[in-house]
Amino acid sequence: MKKIGLVTCLVCFVANIILAQSMINGRVLQTGTKIPIEDITVRLQDSDRLTKTDADGLFSLGALSAGKYEVVFSGVGYDTKVISIEIPLSNPLEVTISVSEQVIEEVLINTGYQQISKAQATGSTVTISNEEFNQVISKDVLSRLETVVSGLIVDRKSNLGSQEDFLIRGPSTLRASKAPLIIVDDFPYEGNLEDLNPNEVESITVLKDAAAAAIWGARAGNGVIVITSKRGSFSTPLKLNFNSNFSVTDHPDMRQVPRLDPSDQVELESFLFENGYYNTRINSSAKTALTPVVELHLKYRDNSSSLDQLEDGLAQLKKYDIRDQWNQYVYRPALNQQYALDIHGGTDRSGTYAMVGFDHGRDHLDAISKRVNLRFNNNYKILPTVQLTSGLSYTNHSGQTGKMAYNEYMDSYGRMPSYSKLADEKGNPLPVAKNYRLSYLDTVHPDLLDWKYYPLDEHNHTNHRSSQHSFRSFVGLTGQFWNLLKLDVRYQNERQLGQVNTHELHTSFTVRDRVNHFTSVAPDQSLNRAFPLGGILNKSQRTFHAQNFRAQANLNHTFAKHQIFGIVGGELQRIDTDSYANTFYGYNDETLTTSAINYLERYPTYTRGTLASIPYNYSIDSGTRRFVSFYANATYDYDQKYVLTASIRRDASNLFGVNTNDKWNLLWSGGLSWNIAQENFYQSELIPQFRFKVAYGQSGNVDPSMVATTTLIAQSSAPYSRLPFRRIDQFGNPELKWERVNTLNAGVELVSRDNMVSLSAEWYMKYTDGLFSYYPVDYTLVATSAIIKNVAQTEARGLDIQLRTNNLRSSFKWSTNLDLSLYKDKLKTYYMASLSAGQFLGGLGVAGVEGKPINAFFAYEWAGLDPNTGAAMGYVDGEPSMDYNAIAGSSVMLDDLVYIGPGMAQVFGSLGNTFSFKGLSLDVRMLYKLGHYYMSPTISYNSLFALGDGHSDYTLRWQRPGDELSTYVPALTYPINTTADRFYTNAEIHAARADNLRLSHVMLSYMVPSKLVSSNFGSQIYIGAKDLGILWRADKRRVDPDSHRTFTIKPTYSIGIKLSY
Amino acid sequence: MNLEYKKAQDTFINCILLFMCMSLGSCTEFLDAKPDGKLVQPETLEALQELMDNAIILNRETPSLGEISCDDYYLSQQLFAGLNRDYLREAYVWSDKNQMPYSNDWSYTYNKVYYANTVLESLENRPHLRSQNLDAWRNIMGQALFVRAKALSDAVFIWADVYDANESETKLGIPVPTDTDFNKPTKRESLKDTYNAIISDLELASHLLPERPLHPNRASKPAALGLLARIYLFSNDYENALHYADSCLSYGYKLMDFNDISTEKKTFTIPEFNIEVLYYSELVAYSLTLRTGSFVDSILYKSYEETDLRKKVFFMGERDNLQVFRGSYSGNDYNFSGISVNEIYFILIESLVRLNKLEEGMESFNYFMKHRYMSEYFEPFIAVDLEQALNYILEHRRKELLRRGLRWPDVKRLNKLGRNIKLTRIVNNREIILEPNDSNFVLAIPEEVLLNTGIPQN
Prior knowledge:
The complex is a heterodimer. Chain A is mostly beta strands. Chain A contains 14 helices and 53 strands. In chain A, the strands form 13 sheets. Chain A has a 22-stranded antiparallel beta barrel. Chain A has a five-stranded mixed sheet with strand order 10-15-16-13-14. A four-stranded antiparallel sheet of chain A has the order 3-2-5-6, with no helix packed on it. By secondary structure, chain B is mostly helical. In chain B, the strands form four sheets. Chain B has a two-stranded antiparallel sheet with strand order 2-4. The longest helix of chain B has 29 residues, at 3-31. Chains A and B meet through helix 5, strand 24, strand 28, strand 29 and strand 32 of A and helix 1, strand 1, helix 2, helix 3 and helix 5 of B.
């Protein structure tokens, strides 16, 4: 109401007395200040005639014949204004336009089912505009969200980059997928998220609470991310956009991988050799791998080398560090190029959008990935009120693997020693022991294939290619009837074909090893080879077909001060997957032939003469998921003051073994919004917008792998008998239900005068029920130690605050965005077999302690090192003790552990500042996570001995009395005490605060003034950097708590250009 | 509103209504699709047979704790120090605690029982399967009964005391689950009820099973009879032991002649699935039950005469002439724990002698020994009395059936019969002795199981 008032009082024009053709000219001024505004587009409605204002705000549209016209004034940062004029004009026009207020009311939220005004939404949503979305340069879509969505946290502890790590307001499930539901163009997206090209995205809406997400029902428990892609609109001139950028990510520093120091490893292995630790391996008839240190000692022991030679050899080995060689020979900076071109425009009856995108990347290991995106969509008005929408998109994603990653350097016992020498001085690959000891390989039959393993060369003999084609098409018909009813039918068809071919060349180690393994020597010394000499081809294919059908009625009725609108609809979804994998032996890629294999025959093996059969790898899988849903929602708005919303949804799926009646799952939501600023009693000029909202809703989570009856999985070939066999996959559980997430959300939205400050604060409480969780069972009575039941409950509370301020608004502009989230959760109900301490340690995943955070750390109480022996000490009855069975044995209970704290950040968010001057703009964003803990990794003597996995803390170990003052790493003991080791690695001394502040990205862009080129031509140059590292951390150990198990992600620098015509 | 427009509108609404009706009607069918093509319920004979062919669960991983505890092998100080699990070190010295985490010997045992119970329950709940294919039905049921009995018998030798007709009603046996309901409390049956359950399963199985199995992974009638003979021998019921050993051998299984086995340049000497194997299974592989993880007791090794072919066939000298075992009936590293003809012969011979049939016993004994000694040097054993005969038989029973988990229950059994076998371990220059009939001969149940169930420890 206010706005209309404002508009009427500001519009002025004076009648013209000249009757014939007359010039239209005038001046544009800013409302209030009356400052002339430059660069405002002035367009005559329904014509091509347009111009721009000059530095004095003056414009001229040329001459027009007498009559009534409408003129549109628009410009970046200003409200668009339309005025009616009557030619002839009496005086030049003087138009005042106001600075746009990014008015909350104008934001539309796309829920995937309907577009609603944010003012009428009662749930919690965040909408990310195209601009915000493009402040980060990346190949994918999701990674751009962390810094702009409050309440979203990317939990990098487990595995990097998967959508499982995106938590909206914390985890809503313990065992099922934690990934939010992704909606692309109104339908759930089932394909690969890496296929989405960020250049296609128009806007993103995140539905955070159950009230907002309830409309998506049983799959929305983790929140919903609605992606709307660009499309053509009616009556717009043809426009062309081009975007291209080039990014480079720094060479990672492999020295950050915490490995045992080479000289420490040489000495340790020497020590173990003296103690006979390697005797089992040395005597093994399988001739399993021995490390170079053991080989040197063995030579000396067998009198085939002198003491000098031994010592010299050991000293030589200490010089090499496998990490330096990874830096030198394996890892490289990663590169990525991105190109996207789109064209869109429309007539009054149709709107069209077409785009083509190409991405090309090479990662740190020289793996190549390519992506081609093609998209086309069209809106066509069949009748003035009936509209046909159709679209087609195609994506091809292909890749090729590169060199071996650092964690693949393994031999038959575990990690290769850190002193391994991978290349000679000239850089030629050297062999290392993998399956067999090198000294044994020197003595084998001379006609065997080379049996040595050259890790730096191996990638040259393997050809691994993957390719994925995705097609998505949709068609929709919308009809508007009597202004009241809109009917909408849509169908989407998504198909994906993924293929992976791994060709191990006949020269690869895998093939050479297999051939030799299945070789037997006849009495006349001739060789019998059971395994074909050609390559090995692993071929797998996966097809995927998702179909969605939806019919929906939209109602909208306004009378007097009342407005009612809503939707009613039904939806069918069906996802079919099929896959197979096959291994071909003796493959020749020139003739495309393979060898026939008798998989049932058992052949003698070379080393030991035992019988073994050639592995048979063939698998076929197929599956289907079905959903049927009915839903409705309604909004009632009274006088733009009070809004009531309600939604209801019922879902069913083909959950296996559950009676159809029980498959139906009813979820609902309701909400209320009160626009206080519209009340008569509210007169504040300082804060012209003030709204309060509250909503409650339910959503769910479904894990399609859960079935309610005892089921068997078929497997192809049993040991020895080679008969098909089955194993029990799931144990009967007829009470299986869907998980349920209930959220109560209450928020306020405030905007100050002139949009200087806008604040949105939302408090929520989330209560989950019936979460799938392991329920301990006695393994005397069933073939498992735990089954999955709907038994767990969690509770979470939080506060999401978004503060946007426009600090400076002259020609130099400065605005700040602060997102602050507070989050706290706890497990309310959870079952553990016993409270024995062992199962609460480790801290990744669900801690399992009722009343404590879902993700919590516990540790053994630490009493320091014994000054005499350097042994780690814990407490027994309050006294320091080294009785490890008493401090860390199976009788130790949860109560004996120290609670460290939550593993998930309790306070987190981002801080962004944008500065702009003329066409230049700088955006800087920081991310912070506070109030959580991690266990910093350390040396485990057990994994060091058993798996060769040694941590660099080994160097710091206690070696002589007095060391206990400067180190907490216990002395090495042999034989190792695994209980003592478990105690030390899980002691509270390793717990550290994970709090950190990091510089997420910086982006500098320059909009080339259109005057310099052509008025229709826009161009922007931008440079950006992301993942710029940690600015501050609470823990002094200087490890990155987000990637402490590996090396830190290095910064990526990009440069790019955007052109539009 | 023009006509064309009205028509389009009507068609449109009709389409939507039609869809709504259709989707409501066909929902049930649409939602009954199987989510994973490989999911099957245990409903068909084929599926049940395939469950019984799961060799990973059923033929592998029979409990090794007895073998770990027995005196046929020892660990050098270095091997002992190199063990990477505390609980293995504890087991080696007969600790009265068992700290093994899941999965362990106990869970491997009861996994087999659960599989068998799943099959038996499915057969019971689906009577129509019987008429579908009677032979297959009998075979599957027999296999399930056999699997259950074999698993329980392997376990009862480890976690319960020796069977004694007088005390077995009061002594604790082990849990004997007979269905798949895992919400019931777990309890230990009496030793007598445990043995009775095993025997009745096997008796029924021996009537149902075919004479020849498709593969030694599957149970057969002779295997069931052989296992019955073993159970009766361990319950000191020599009449029945003799009866079942005799019936078992009546199916024409032959002995291998070790004179035909070459030992040159071979890591393993006995062929897999050789003619003596009636039922195939393997012990859980821990490093100290494997060939290279332990050494054969030196006194035992030296007791083999030079003309005894087993000295070469079973053993191989490592460095310093320490002997390792290479004669597993698996033909590989895994220790055989199934049922084979040589064991049945020893049951037959021992039963004969204990039943005072000295002559008959010695005749069978010498027949057997001819297959183990160099034919040109073989001199028949002559026993002047029962005691001497028994001494020969027990000595060679040990020398024939080593590293298959039988020595431990044999020591327990023979000590009850007054043979006074004392076990000694030397660890860190300290001698640890297990006196005959010590309570630690009944091994500890994993602590975790006790915590879960509240059943009493041994």
